[in-house]
Amino acid sequence: MGKGYAEGPAAEERFAALERGETDAVVVHPPDRQAVYGSTPDDPSRHFIGWREDVDPDRLFESGKAWGLTVVLRSSPPNEG
Prior knowledge:
By secondary structure, the protein is of the alpha+beta class. 23% of the residues lie in helices and 27% in strands.
């Protein structure tokens, strides 16, 4: 019984293309990054503040510059590093 994926002519052609070294059809998803969300005096609604490697949520909170901070995984857009 079929598993519903990686079977049939389309899958066979894709595997053959990969063996030939054709990788242009491979979709690469950007890695998940930690994003910091919270509220600030300028914008009290919850919004994206920055990437975790650029923003220290503890320091932001302690300084009073932001509150309600959360860190979530988010895929970065293709044009961002």
